[in-house]
């Protein structure tokens, strides 16, 4: 399996990854996070070059909201059911702050990413920011969730 790539600055990422992170950052403006004030944006790069964004959508009745990654993934598949998702970038920011804050995919999003990988039979690279403010490029959802639940588990 490919290794994780860790870089210290956004500028050290490849051009496609930088663009995806910037699109995910733009999506933060549309996050609905009145309860946590923790806004998350995601962007998915499709194999036809399209970029689909998503942002977290909270709800007063926890856990009825939805994470940014899942919004982007479900939107991508709804709009382009026959296109492969190549990469997903995740960004986060606390309301009122100008800098991005570290955030990685939650367990539910890792599971959904794994399902998409299995469905399309190709890995999805995931770009996110570590607690040390470094950018991580994970080669696949499987690398983030090595013992994930799949159809073989049923």
Automatic annotation (TrEMBL):
Domain CMP/dCMP-type deaminase: 15-152
GO MF annotation list: cytidine deaminase activity; zinc ion binding
Domain of life from the UniProt record: Bacteria
Stored Gene3D superfamilies: Cytidine Deaminase, domain 2
InterPro entries in alphabetical order: CMP_dCMP_dom, Cyt/Deoxycyt_deaminase, Cytidine_deaminase-like
Single Gene Ontology BP annotation: nucleobase-containing small molecule metabolic process
GO cellular component labels: cytosol
PROSITE patterns xrefs: CYT_DCMP_DEAMINASES_2 (PS51747)
Family: Belongs to the cytidine and deoxycytidylate deaminase family.
UniProt name for this protein: Cytidine deaminase
